Every structure is written in structure tokens, then in C-alpha cells.
Amino acid sequence: MEHIPQVDALMQQAALAYPIYRKVSGKQKAAFLRLIATGIENLGETLIETAHLETHLPHDRLRSERQRTLFQLEIFAQLLEEGSWVEARLDMPQPERLPIPKPDVRKMLMGIGPVVVFGASNFPFAYSTAGGDTASALAAGCPVVVKGHPAHAQTSAMVAQAISQAVQEAGLPQGVFGHIEGHSFAIGQALVCHPETKAVGFTGSLVGGKALFDLANQRPQPIPVFAEMGSINPVVLLPARLEAQAEALALQYAQSITSGVGQFCTNPGLLIGIKSEALDRFLAALGQHIAQTAPATMLHAGIYQNFEGKKTVVTAQEGVTIAAESGIAKTGIIQAQATIATVDADTFLANPTLHQEVFGPFSLLVQCANSQQLVTVVAHLEGQLTATIIANETELLEYEDVVEKLRNICGRLVFNGVPTGVEVGFAMQHGGPFPASTDARFGAVGPDAIKRFVRPVAYQNFPEQWLPDELKKENPLQIWRIVEGVFTK
Ligand code: NAP
After folding, report:
1. Which DSSP string corresponds to 133-147?
2. Same domain, 54 and 137
3. Of the candidates 93, 109, 229, 432, which lies 20 to 30 Å from 422 by C-alpha distance?
4. Residue 302 lies in domain
5. From the CA of 69, how far away is ligand 1's center (Å)?
6. What is the dihedral of CA 343, 347, 353, 358, to 10 degrees?
7. What is the pTM of this model?
8. 141 exposed, middle or buried (CB, 10 Å; 0-12, 13-18, 19+)?
9. 31-54, pLDDT tens digit by residue?
10. In this structure, are 163 and 307 located in the same domain?
């Protein structure tokens, strides 16, 4: 492993900051998160323009993504102020219990230590420098070191500056936040392997996420890597609903497939239906919308080349037909042309290449001979962030097996909608069985994302004054806890 002095210095600083930052109260941490939000807001249109020039994402999209980022910081601030997220449990002692006395045991969640975050290329704000991973780790009480994504290095540096300013204003140790740039796998590898790193948050490719996950597991002291990677987000179109709504669904799906130039991890990359006149109507209408979709500029040359390369590989497979492609001429080099391909279920089942993510405005329609084959196709799918079922309510019962199989492979099951658009909230799950993510028990969106960067610690027979406030008998913070098995304040 290459020794990178800057990585070492950042991780050492983070390690020094950890014991101090860990003990900062929830209210102070909340104020710190709000200072970060204010700092980002104060960067104003300069930040939006910088991000636009680096990522080619439209200004309005960037403004709403920044808003989402500020909202994420605010929900973690509120979570910290309320305080019950630590899941405090108190089992009171019974010194007279026979045959052995029962000890006093009190447990709560605590920040795991310095966390390394890899910024995502497709979300320059919401899943990058001050995004969900950083906000949840800081909320958990963990110092954070961000590896900025080279696709938006300047944007990342500006946001990092705002966070460092907030660290200073909040009177926190400098090592609470660190930032490193550079287009080099060696930096990422050194960060993951550094002995002071205690967990990793990642959003990106399956190849990248899996490589870093494997590296973390080979360390003398393995650490968790929460990698959110590829997903083809299957959509099952059941016959009765399709018969009634073919044209409306085609429009809805054309918009979902091409939204953000298809550069969303929840992009519907796989459509599955049973051969019928309604499926033909759906495909024809979808094709018309796709043909009228103007080519759009992707995030960076690497993503564009990946899109073109993977699309070419998939559409060149035997039995795959291109059903529709954007009919409008390109005006730029790294512009993607939206494409729909189609294949029969036997070919799909026999060829794993067709199960891979083509990151961009692309979707593959699998046409099944009958409902039994539909069940077989669904049974062969890998782990996914989302799965969608388009159906009438009566079909949910008729196709119970399909619903159950989809539930087993995904983190979020959508009924009569599209998978794109991830609401940030307590009930959201954004993460699914491998290869969608490396740990399906957790998610990267919403307040529960904090659970990735904590570990439970139990104190046994400790004197009251030595316990954290969350575990004191009198409950000075007035948080929800489980005391003697009863949920109480
Ligand atoms: P990526 O190639 O996985 O890179 C993400 C970050 O991880 C970058 O900072 C990269 O380092 C680092 N990295 C990747 N592999 C590494 C390794 N083996 N060792 C150390 N560091 C490593 O993702 P990307 O640049 O965002 O996009 C590439 C492809 O990822 C896309 O075409 C798409 O297929 C996929 N993608 C998927 C999602 C999703 O949510 N499903 C989101 C974004 C991208 P460098 O900075 O040095 O390159």
C-alpha cells in the first residue's frame, strides 16, 4: 500500500479529534450542522455555477439538490436535538437476585470513529462532500475525511471550505473534518486501509465499491464499508393494469428513464412484461417518446464512455433488438442518446450480461411468454435498490409469488409508480441486497443512515456520574428509552 503523507496527516487529525467530538452534546452538534448548512447557502449562485460547469447538470436541478442537502443537514440537527436516536436501554440491577445478582447494564449507540466518505459523481451536493454520508457520520459523532470526486473537484473544495469554516466557528477540533482531492485510486485505497479509519461510506460503481469493500476486509482490523452501488431497478408490468394504462405508463416511464440523463441509481433499467397487444402498445408509445428525447450531456467523459460501452455490449448480444433510440442529432461529444432495447425472456435468462447496469438513459424490456416465465425471470434477478410493480390491486393477489420474490431482492418496493425520486424521510430505505449495496441492513438516505456509523456500547455497574447523560437514571435529556423492557421517557 502506497504511503500518502496527506492521507496519514488527515487520518491522524481525525483520530485526535474523535475523543473530543464524540463527547460534544447533541445540541452543539445540531448547531454545528446548521452552521454547515448556512455556510453552503452563503456560497449562493457561485456554487451552483461552479457545479454546473463541472457536471453539466442544469441549474434548477442543482438548486433543488442543494436544497435537499440543506434539508438533510437539518433533519440530522433535529434528530440530535431530540436525542432518542441513541436507542438507550437500561436494565436495572437486582443485587439480591439468586443464584447470582443481576448487574446494572445500560447500553446506547455511539459514533464508531473516523469515517471516510467517497463523494458521488452523480450527486455533487446531496451525496458528496456535505451529503448524506457526511451529515450522518458527523451527527453520529464521527470525524469525517472526504475523498472529493474528481468530476466536481472545485465544487467539492468550496463545500469543504464551508464545512471547515463551520468547524472553526463551532469551536471544534480541526480534525473533525478533512478533505482530499485527486484522481488516484491510491488515495482512496490509502484512506480505506489507514489504521485510524473505522468505517467507509461510498456511492459509485459496483467495481469500485466492491474493490474498496474487499480491501477493507483484508485489513488486519477489518472495517465496515457501506457502498451503494449499481442497480437495474426492475419494473414488472402486470397485464390488466398495462391493458388499461399502456400509453400513460409509456409516458411516465420515458420521463423516468431519461430524467437526469438516466444518471440515477434508481433509474428503471429493466422492464418486464408478458407478451400481449397491450405490451406492444406500451413499447410503441415508449419508443415514440424516446425518439423525441433530445440527447443530453452526461456528467463526465468517463461516465459517457461507460454508458456507450455498456450499451453497445448489451445491444450487440444475440437476441437483443434496439426498439427505440433518440432521433434528434447530437450537438456535443459526451451527449447520451436515450435507448430502449428488447429481448425475450429465454435469452435474458441465459445471458448474465443482460442483467448488468447500463448507467444512463437506457432500459431493456424483457418479454415473457406467460405468467410462469415472468415468475422465473423475477426469481433470477440479483439484489436491487428498488423493485416496482405495475398492477391492479386484484393482480397483487393473483401474482402474489412475483410480489414476494421482488420483496426478497429489494430495499424499496414501489406500487404503481416509478423508482426514480427518493424521498428523504424516516421511513425511506435506500440500499438493498448485494450487489445494490454491501450491507442491505442499512441505507444511505434519511435519518436512519446514522446507524451505519455507530456501535452499541454497554456500561456495566458504572457509577451514575460516570455515565453519559443518555444513560443516567433520571433521564436528564428526556429522551425515549427502554427501561426494564418498557419503552418510556
Ligand atoms: P467510481 O468509478 O466507482 O468512482 C467513485 C469513487 O471511488 C472515485 O473517487 C474513485 O476514485 C473511487 N474508486 C473507484 N474504484 C476505486 C478503487 N478500486 N480503488 C480506490 N478508489 C476507487 O464511480 P463514478 O466515477 O461515479 O462513475 C463510474 C461509474 O459508476 C458510472 O459509469 C456508473 O456505472 C457507476 N455509478 C453508479 C452509481 C449508482 O448510484 N448506481 C452512481 C454513480 C456512478 P477516483 O476519484 O480516483 O476515480
Report:
1. HHHHHHHHT--EEEE
2. yes
3. 109
4. 234-415
5. 21
6. 10
7. 0.96
8. buried
9. 999 999 999 999 999 999 999 999
10. no
